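Final report, results section. Input specification for complex C-07:
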Amino acid sequence: MTATSFSPHISRQFDQELEDIRARVLAMGGLTEAQIADALEALCDGNSELAEQVIENDIKVNTLEVSIDEDCTQILARRQPAATDLRLVVAVGKTITDLERIGDEAEKIGHMALHLAENQCPKSYYVGLESMGNHVRAMLHDALDAFARMDSESALKVASEDPKVDQEYVAILRQLITYMMEDPRSIARAMDVIWSVRALERIGDHASNICENVIYLVEGKNVRHVSLEEMRKKVRPESD
Amino acid sequence: MTATSFSPHISRQFDQELEDIRARVLAMGGLTEAQIADALEALCDGNSELAEQVIENDIKVNTLEVSIDEDCTQILARRQPAATDLRLVVAVGKTITDLERIGDEAEKIGHMALHLAENQCPKSYYVGLESMGNHVRAMLHDALDAFARMDSESALKVASEDPKVDQEYVAILRQLITYMMEDPRSIARAMDVIWSVRALERIGDHASNICENVIYLVEGKNVRHVSLEEMRKKVRPESD
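Structure output:
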């Protein structure tokens, strides 16, 4: 099912408030997307300045989370939303938690980029990492897009990418462990790359969580902790 | 401030519902505490059976999360809570997310315990890990206690433990990296221990988050992303 639209409220002001939190979530999402992109660039290009900027910018992500969270509580207290409106507020509350954690992971990559830039890490260590990074960034982008369009089918499609990210993660990890075994002096450096890859893997998980929130919002069904197969059935019950 | 109590509601049924979700959060907390204890024991004693049990039990934690989350949404929809009641529902919603993630981390330790039991990991690798594990378990226990008693001062005290856990984490990590450099054949094994220590560090973070939820619930002040010093000022404004 696609593009359920909100029914108009008696209070235009209320409509505006709901529209505002949706827009603010998307703005927060755009910021975290940019943080991932910058963190990756800082890491792969050894750009310390950009890494420091990513670390500093995390406070913007955090501030947005607190502010949108307060908006949600205000709406619950003053508007006492029901049905789809309530689901929107609940889904937004969960989504901003995931976005905030994605921001934290981008910040961690920023710190690792700083260490690695100091230690002149060979490019071979980043093989696979950049493409995995672009993969999870695309997942986040598409998850936010599904949220914006209230499109549960797209959300499902994005969530289906996560197992592939996990496979990339395992392959990169294995490669890095081989490097460490071949050259034990590289261990500390390789560990910094490992933490970065781990952070990317977590970003993929959070992007999937956002997809679950979209499915909850659109379909009114909780799909947390269910397999992709079951999720599919809940989004497209007609195909059973 | 300590032990703010709920004012009685016109509807006894509503009082009962709020009391129920509080009790269920504590039950879920007790289960995750037991999961951490079992995961640690499985790891340190090389007990594969117990490790498998921890992995299986994670579904119980997940099921509780989904069920309490639904209770919260029901209360929001039907009771339209305000003031402290609304804060309770919001704080419960956040706390169960943290508890569920703690459960995930315990499960990860369970998987690592399985690997390590197969690979006969020497006891020296676990030096520090057991005590760090007990530390974060105590943090979770005390955080849940602060939640049960609505005691923001205790919550603050628990959150103040987190930097110490982070120090333990860094020290253990350094030690493990030394082992890896001394004996590169041990790298894969040491990595499994590293993932377990990382999981413990994350559990400490989530226990701190629960403390922040308690402070929000009792004091009505959002203390996410603020320093411990600022948190202290918000909990004990009289000491400024």
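Chain B has eight helices and no strands. The domain at 12-239 of chain B is CATH 1.20.58.220 (Methane Monooxygenase Hydroxylase; Chain G, domain 1). This concludes the modelling results for the funded period.
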